[in-house]
Amino acid sequence: MSEKPVIVNFLGLNFNLTNCLGGTLMAIAVFALVYYLSRRITLKPNKKQNLLEYLIEFTNNIVKDNVEDEDAQKHLSLYAFTLFLFIFMMNQLGLFLEFTVNEHVLVKSPTADPLITMTMAMMTLLLSFNFGVRKFGFRGYMSNYARPVGFLLPINLIEEFTNFLTLSLRLYGNIYAGEVLLTLIGGRLAKSGGLWTIIASAPLTLIWQGFSVFIGSIQAYVFVTLSMVYIGNKVTQE
Amino acid sequence: MQFMFAALKLGIGDMIYYLVIFAILLLAVKHFAWGPVTDMMEKRRKKITDDIEQAESNRKKAEILANQREAELKDSKQEATQILSTAKSNAEKTKQSIINDADSEAAAIRKKANADAVQAKKDALNEARDQVADLSVAIAEKVIAKSLSAEDQKDLVDQFIKGLND
């Protein structure tokens, strides 16, 4: 991979333009999608409304299955819905669009960068702290780490860290591997032996893109589900 | 060390950017799509619940009405049977009274006829007796040419008729 990110320094912080551009584009895409689907909301749903309600029901079910607390459910359903659509879109972005200018890649899947998936996982982590503290109070929340027995305290603390890491790195690994293989097929293999390899790589790319769409959807689902599982664990007393 | 710091800096910029983007996206989605749609879903849920409840109560009402109607139907059937039986017994009574009336009337007529006949026979006999008396007087006058008193004559005829009757 010879792609170099475009990094801009602003207010003493470095912004990776590749990530920023991709994320912004996909945020706009998600908003455009739900905005388009949510026009003319009626009691008797039309086709667009049906699709949107199906998506909402889908993420709501993820939340309901994993979070038992009713109050937390209410707050989490919107988060799950937006998170699912956002991650799904970001996963798919790199599959059909990779925009490179002078060896500098401008648009690719932002979730193929561990920083972005860690940001997402960090949001989930902070939310789980928030819900846990809100439910049990600070003292009660802290004492939950020593449950069900005291000597599990270090393991529970480590689990917190590993949950965060696995959540983010699973998503990153899947999407990154997909992108790498896609680049390898499209970039290296196709250009390796002239016309013959270009023709041969076309169906391979097609198959791998299809598979990556599948992986991207599954990973978005897994990410949201696991987020809800972690938060659900925090709001239920063991 | 410098490399680590650079990496950290690189991360924080993107992280903040993504957090901001996600927050904005969350608010926008909530305001434009999530809110209205979930409201509408809730409304629909309420409406469906109401409709089901209403249907249930309507069904109960209909059941009560049907039962009532059935009871009424049974009642009216009973009533009809009663009316029919009353009418039958009434007719029977009327028939009996008519027959009785006719019988008694016929008996009276027969009695009267008998009496009339007896009277007529009596009258006829009397008349015949008188005529026979007159006739025999006339015959006797002519035959015996001797004046016989009417009294004696009558006694004679009476004896004669008594002989006839016996």
Please provide a written account of the structure.
The complex is a heterodimer of chains A (238) and B (166). Chain A has 238 residues and is mainly alpha-helical. Chain A has one domain. Chain A is 75% helix and 6% strand. Chain A has helices at 17-37, 47-66, 70-96, 114-143, 153-192, 195-234; strands spanning 7-10, 13-16, 99-101, 104-107. In chain A, strand 1 (7-10) and strand 2 (13-16) form a beta hairpin. Chain A starts with 6 loop residues before the first strand and ends with a helix. The relative contact order of chain A is 0.14. Chain B is mostly helical and 166 residues long. Chain B has one domain (2-165). Chain B has two helices and no strands. Chain B has helices spanning 2-144, 150-165. In chain B, helix 1 packs across helix 2. The A-B interface holds A 7, 10, 12-16, 19-20, 23-24, 27, 30-31, 34-35, 37-38, 41-43, 45, 49, 52-53, 56, 78-79, 81-83, 86, 110, 113, 115-116, 118-120, 122-123 and B 6, 9-19, 21-22, 24-26, 28-30, 32-34, 36-38, 40-41, 43-44, 47.
Number of helices of chain A: 6
CA-to-CA gap between the ends of chain A? Answer: 47 Å
Distance between the termini of chain B: 181 Å
Tell me roughly what share of residues is in helical segments of chain A: over 70%
Give Rg of chain A in angstroms.
Answer: 21 Å
In percent terms, what proportion of residues of chain A is strand? Answer: 5-15%
Oligomer: heterodimer
Number of domains of chain B: 1
Shape of chain A: globular
Topology order of chain B in helix (H) and strand (E) letters: HH
Parts with pLDDT < 50 across at least 5 consecutive residues of chain A: none
Give the strand order of the largest sheet of chain A, numbering strands 1, 2, ... along the chain. Answer: 1-2
Q: What is the largest interface, and how many residues per chain?
A: A-B, 41 and 31 residues
Strand coverage percent of chain B: under 5%
Listing every helix as H and every strand as E from the N terminus to the C terminus, the arrangement of chain A reads: EEHHHEEHHH
Counted beta strands of chain A: 4
Radius of gyration of chain B: 64 Å
**Helix/strand/pairing class of chain A, anyone?**
mainly alpha
Fraction of residues in H or I helices of chain B: over 70%
Mean pLDDT of chain B: 85
Largest sheet geometry of chain A: 2 strands, antiparallel
Keywords (chain B): ATP synthesis, Cell membrane, CF(0), Coiled coil, Hydrogen ion transport, Ion transport, Membrane, Transmembrane, Transmembrane helix, Transport
Organism (chain B): Lactobacillus colini
InterPro entries (chain B): ATP_synth_b/b'su_bac/chlpt, ATP_synth_F0_bsu_bac, ATP_synthase_B_chain
Subcellular location (chain B): Cell membrane; Endomembrane system
